[in-house]
């Protein structure tokens, strides 16, 4: 009855973290110090029911071999703060999905579900580049732009679970159309996709290329350098907004593009240009996030260990870690 007052992590057990992305599912076992073991990544094979079945299979694969205290799942979409259902994860075709409930029934153990940007920010706050600071603002710049906020040492989810969705900060009035239905969202100007789109607009059309190709070329090609500077400046513009909102000592940049030192250098130059030192405005200091692609796995697991989810009262009262015995393998 009182199991909520006893954090699962006090069992000293490892927790299974699963980070379900739009294209890949990362997973691993996480101990109470945030260390990972058995990290794996697999490609998402489908959407809807198919993606759900794949998440179940990944979890079962671990639980059949390793006892864990709980399961934490990060998803690319909003999670309702009260019902804990996945409000919408468009990349996976999930809407109003009670993922935690389904996994609990399937696996027989405590399951916590959280937005992936929030989970990654929580991981950096607890074990990464945000450790020791009460305010962690993580901006993940990969193909898209994702964010997560830890404010006053607590994960900020907002009233509807969309509290950290800063990729949809409307920065350019009447700008580019965004998947959210609005125009001019930050993500449309400051992401790997934006970098590739800008390069295409400037005549890069010969062969398929990635944001990294443009970054590679920027050292010698003035057009590529200009494109990277434009995207870095757009990122810097949004970062100054976050600086004013949250007064974070530093803002962490994650993701393949965000942690690339070449890009980071241009973002810093952009910040110096558009936001010179001022006595009345918080200085924006950016730093690379520390946990890389494992951040979502670690954060999801640690939130599950901390009993972040109100539905954690399904933790087994006897404190026995969940483990799928051979008799349960084919339920
Ligand atoms: Zn948007």
From TrEMBL:
PROSITE patterns: ROK (PS01125). Pfam families: ROK (PF00480). InterPro entries: ATPase_NBD (IPR043129), ROK (IPR000600), ROK_cs (IPR049874). Belongs to the ROK (NagC/XylR) family. This is Glucokinase.
């Amino acid at each position: 009855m009182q199991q909520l007052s006893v954090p699962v992590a006090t069992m000293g057990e490892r927790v299974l973290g699963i980070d379900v992305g739009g294209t890949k599912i990362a997973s691993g076992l996480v101990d109470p110090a945030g260390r990972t073991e058995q990290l794996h990544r697999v490609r998402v094979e489908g959407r809807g029911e198919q993606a759900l079945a794949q998440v179940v299979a990944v979890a079962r694969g671990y639980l059949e071999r390793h006892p864990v205290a709980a399961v934490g799942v990060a998803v690319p979409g909003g999670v309702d703060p009260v019902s804990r259902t996945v409000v919408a994860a468009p990349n996976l075709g999930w809407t109003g999905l009670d993922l935690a409930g389904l996994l609990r029934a399937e696996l027989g153990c405590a399951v916590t579900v959280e937005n992936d940007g929030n989970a990654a920010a929580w991981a950096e706050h607890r074990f990464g580049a945000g450790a020791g600071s009460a305010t962690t603002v993580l901006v993940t710049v990969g193909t898209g732009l994702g964010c997560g906020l830890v404010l006053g040492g607590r994960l900020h989810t907002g009233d509807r679970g969309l509290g950290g969705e800063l990729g949809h900060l409307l920065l350019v009035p009447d700008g580019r159309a965004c998947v959210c239905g609005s125009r001019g969202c930050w993500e449309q100007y400051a992401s790997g996709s934006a970098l590739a789109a800008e390069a295409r607009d400037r005549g890069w059309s010969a062969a398929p290329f990635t944001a990294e190709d443009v970054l590679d070329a920027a050292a010698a090609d003035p057009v590529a350098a200009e494109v990277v500077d434009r995207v870095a400046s757009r990122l810097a513009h949004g970062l100054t907004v976050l600086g004013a909102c949250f007064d974070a000592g530093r803002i962490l940049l994650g993701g393949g593009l965000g942690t690339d030192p070449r890009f980071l250098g241009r973002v810093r130059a952009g910040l110096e240009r558009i936001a010179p030192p001022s006595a009345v405005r918080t200085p924006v200091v950016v730093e690379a996030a520390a946990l890389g692609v494992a951040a979502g796995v670690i954060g999801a697991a640690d939130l599950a260990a901390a009993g972040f989810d109100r539905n954690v009262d399904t933790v087994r009262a006897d404190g026995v870690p969940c483990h799928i015995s051979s008799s349960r393998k084919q339920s």
